[in-house]
User: Fold these one by one.
Assistant:
Number 1:
Amino acid sequence: MTDHRDGLDARRIRFRRGDRLILDGMHLTAPGGAVTALLGPNGSGKSTLLRLIAGTLRGEVESVRLHGDPLLTMMRRERAQRVALVEQEWSAAEGMTGRDIVALGLLPHRGWLSFESEATDAAATETALRRAGALAFADRDAATLSGGERQRVNLARALAQRPALLLCDEPTNHLDIRAQLDALTLLRSLAGDGMTVFAALHDLNHAAAFADRIVVVANGHVQAAGSPQEVLTRELIARVWNVDAVVLSRPDSDRPLIVFDEAPVPVLGR
């Protein structure tokens, strides 16, 4: 895969749900060939933001560019060739196996008359399943899969799509500890191949350990953006999440390790 370094640039993103302004003129970037973690409290609009960037939700957006190309003015099929969104929940079509769902990721790259062979499609599906750790249950009815298994199948579908930009909404959701680490390691590997990876995460230590860049959102705005060392400070964690934390350095690394205190921090200035 070509290693594009421009990445994602999304400007003036605004979204209102009823009387509540969720996102208020937000501007964010995610560099190519890197993992950017999107962090924020529950209700801060992380899922909404990913869907607006992917174009699956309409809002007030000035521009969303990937490597300089405007995504939101593209035809749906062209955009799907470049962007894949892995959401937290999904609805499996009745009677489909995990393998069938992963094969849907190939559709954006087919013309009206596809000359791809069944063997080529099968190989691409198999590769995506294996890389996402979903091969063992690929031929089961998707309705019988556990939450963690569904999450892996959904990630495999996105890999089959061969995107330049991978958007992930809580990719470790429903996964056990080993599978969480495998998923995060996979995201790092994809970024190493040149992909732009933008993932909403809940676990600050996962973000600190695996992300190259962190964007923190709350109250409709970007609160901080930069490296894990720059962003994940005791002061920011207290201000955004209302918890006290000790920020240490990981052994053999300058990446932060966050240890939380049990006592809440008093809310100031709200």
Number 2:
Amino acid sequence: MVRLPYSNIGNTKFQRLLGHNEEILKHWSNLEDAFYEHGNLSAELKEQVRRTLAFGNKCKYCQAKGKPEQNIEDSRVSLAVAFADLFLKSRDSINQGTFDMLRREFTDAEIAELCSYICFTTGNQMFGALMDLEP
């Protein structure tokens, strides 16, 4: 059961929880839109990373959209998912060598986007898990 009553502001359950502070909801949504409308990474890559994070962050609301693919053929998607998994399980082990490996497939701008997307998505999912948000 969700931990706070929903506000009347927002379209989704998640937004209606953030809607208790309209300014935060507005800016949070703007950042989310920037990732999905203006980013350089493919929608498929972001979706597989999001799904990987959902299960690691234990957000039931986000898990409801499905598990990550198991046999990913696209090397960029596969590497991004592996990086997200490493972030979840062993963040302290991420070092310069990890970023050197990412540079084999991604530009610096794409790496910055991937890292910021992982952090933003983790924030979304941790909020959902903290609020016990159900699908």
Number 3:
Amino acid sequence: MTELIDGVRTAVAARTDWSGTAELVADQLRRHLPTPAVLTAQQRLGSPDRYTSHTLYVEPDSSFSIIALVWRPGQLTRIHDHVTWCVFGVIQGTEHEELYDADLNLVGRSDNHTGDVRGFAPPGDIHRVHNTGDTTAISLHIYGTDVTRIGTSARRFYN
């Protein structure tokens, strides 16, 4: 994780706009995407009740945090957007993502497989993530804030 953390720190220090930062961080995550071994065996199991998150790192100045999300089959998020830029990389399984416009019209779908990395920034970041597979999926998310301090990466939830 040291090389990833150093790379993200360098990307954030470039002080570009949120979209540019997301692109720079995504490049670093592609170069340094860890394996599921970054989590303990117990953490990799997830929860039968809902997807789980594990904080892996928070930058001391709160400029970014790295969180692992574990999704058992069928688990999903609500439709939401974010408080800041976000980059994610799938390290196990497949995550299905649905993208929405500001009127909550479905505008795109994608299946993100192991090794896939994507980044985005508000506005235009309304989405829902769903494990549509029959095995556990794990992804690493890097947010442009300390999500442990603010409690969530979501800015709003939509019905």
